[in-house]
Inverse folding.
């Protein structure tokens, strides 16, 4: 058996990245990311997001990878100013009033009053059936923040209002969305050639409740509320 090349030092001991890459390598077909239930023309949604377009090292790494992917078909590149981690969808704006959304934000703020800022590493490049993205970790502090958000939603709106299972959450930063069903192998191979870039270290200092809408094949987020973590 041929020995596998040793991972670069800057990617050793990052099991979350290895696990996500293993899952992506098993994908046979890419799907249309934009074919998502509930999204109709003009409809908007409240989402909790960590906004990352202000991190220069991350936007530079994303721009470099996007340039290397640009010739591949079926990709909608994410503007680097819009890079983010989606933490949790709250609801479509026609399903919950602004007052209730504000109440959830206030509850999250109280839940996070003693929560310290979260150091994270972003990278290497990986993917999912609908996107090319960076892994983000370590997982547990990010998942703890998400748990606090979910607990607040459940307490304000009821447990039935939670739209996703907690166990499905994998933090990531998407740099391109796939817009047509197609063979996954060309994307997997191209992503593999970009996995040696060193990760970007940054700190999650806040999480935002945003009003999200889709303009063609692009998400546009408007901040509705901000929750600061302890620096």
């Amino acid at each position: 058996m041929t020995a596998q090349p040793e991972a670069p030092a800057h990617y050793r001991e990052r099991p979350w990245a290895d696990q996500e890459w293993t899952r992506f390598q098993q994908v046979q077909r890419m799907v249309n990311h934009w074919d998502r239930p509930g999204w109709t023309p003009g409809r908007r949604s409240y989402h909790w997001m960590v906004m990352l377009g202000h991190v220069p090292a991350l936007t530079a790494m994303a721009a470099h990878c996007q340039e290397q992917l640009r010739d591949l078909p079926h990709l909608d590149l994410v503007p680097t100013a819009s890079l983010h981690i989606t933490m949790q969808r709250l609801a479509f704006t026609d399903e919950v009033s602004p007052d209730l959304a504000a109440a959830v934000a206030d509850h999250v703020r109280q839940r996070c009053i003693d929560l310290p800022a979260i150091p994270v590493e972003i990278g290497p490049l990986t993917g999912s059936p609908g996107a090319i993205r960076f892994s983000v970790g370590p997982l547990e502090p990010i998942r703890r923040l998400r748990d606090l958000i979910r607990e607040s939603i459940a307490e304000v709106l009821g447990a039935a209002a939670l739209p996703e299972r907690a166990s499905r959450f994998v933090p990531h930063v998407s740099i391109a969305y796939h817009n047509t069903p197609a063979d996954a192998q060309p994307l997997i191979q191209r992503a593999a050639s970009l996995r040696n870039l060193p990760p970007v270290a940054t700190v999650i200092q806040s999480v935002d409740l945003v009003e999200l809408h889709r303009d063609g094949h692009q998400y546009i987020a408007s901040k509705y509320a901000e929750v600061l973590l302890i620096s």
Q: What stands out?
A: The chain has one domain: 15-228. The CA atoms of residues 62 and 211 lie 24 Å apart.
